[in-house]
Amino acid sequence: MTATPDLGTAQLASSDLLRSTFRRHAAGVAVITARGASGPVGFTATSLTSVSADPPLVSFGIGAGASSWPAVAEADHVGVHILGEHQSELAATFARSGADRFGAPTVWREGPEGVPVLDDVLAWLVCRIVGRVPAGDHRIVLAEVVLGDPSGAGRPLLYHQGRFNGLRD
């Protein structure tokens, strides 16, 4: 059965329309990390995208006003971490403004190129930033994969309707 769109309820473009629409779009959850001038920085991202297989490129969005943006704007490399469904608290910590993101209980170590690498994730990558593209109030960061490890166990964490969720069978 197909539902016919109700064109009578259409809304003009706005940030609220975009947010409301994308709350209905389930997205994987990643944490992006970088080495900053005064220590590690990181944030939760649901905008991670595979861009190219050859060369291996990814992209993600970051708000130009985000606390992590100054470090990402200057960094040569970033860490990309795919979170498992057991890591909703970690995702919330990295999404919360003003949180001590790298304090306990977050477990991490300095990885290749000085990038903070989080423990117990489904997969992680270290990527070399190759471009930063202005896009409204955000920046789209393009990064080439240098190395990583996809061998973590578990199922992915998803973000849907403003909440972190696991997959359901």
From TrEMBL:
Q: Name one GO molecular function term.
A: riboflavin reductase (NADPH) activity
The Gene Ontology biological process annotation of the record reads:
pyrimidine nucleobase catabolic process
Annotated Flavin reductase like domain residues: 22-166
Recorded source organism is Streptomyces argyrophylli
Ordered alphabetically, the record's keywords are: Oxidoreductase
Q: Does the keyword Oxidoreductase apply?
A: yes
Alphabetized Pfam families for the sequence: Flavin_Reduct
Question: Is Zinc-finger a UniProt keyword of this protein?
Answer: no
Source taxon at top rank: Bacteria
Q: What is this protein called?
A: Flavin reductase family protein
Mind telling me which InterPro entries this protein's record contains?
A: Flavin_Rdtase-like_dom, NADH-dep_flavin_reductase, Split_barrel_FMN-bd
